[in-house]
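ok so for the tutorial part 2 we go from a plain amino acid sequence to predicted structure tokens. step 1 is just haveing the sequence, like this:
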Amino acid sequence: MINTKIFEKAEETVNLLKQKGLKIATAESCTGGMVSAFITSVSGVSEVFEMGITSYSCRIKHKILNVKNETLDRFGAISESTAKQMANNVREISGADIGVSVTGAAGPDGSEGHNPGFVFIGLSHKDGTTVKQLNIEPKSRNFVREQTVLQLFTLVINFLKEN
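step 2 — the prediction. this is what the tokens look like for a chain of 163 residues:
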């Protein structure tokens, strides 16, 4: 069953992207493609969605998304630096106007010494990249993933409304 609250945020995101003539690309880890799944469930999304990459392993984060090995070794996959590079690099790779990223611990267990619900979301555009740290109550793995997707769409919507 589709989460209508997330779908509404995805729909608002797509509509704002269309209004502004902008394209978006996604780089996801702990959400496992949920951002891409919700955004592509909106009719007419092909006008604004370039691509989505789900990269669970550090190897793929490095090989496909060009996250520096030094970043992964020093800060880990769940870090502000990794989220920043994921968002920036997916934007550059795709040629999109906006790149977004998600990396974190969805649960039920922690990862890299971080508790479930510890997540970073990023948004990259031509003038820079912003990363936000989330601490979501880990009610369940799916709850963490859904709340992360909601927060990411909210970040994009706020950015689009302000710019």
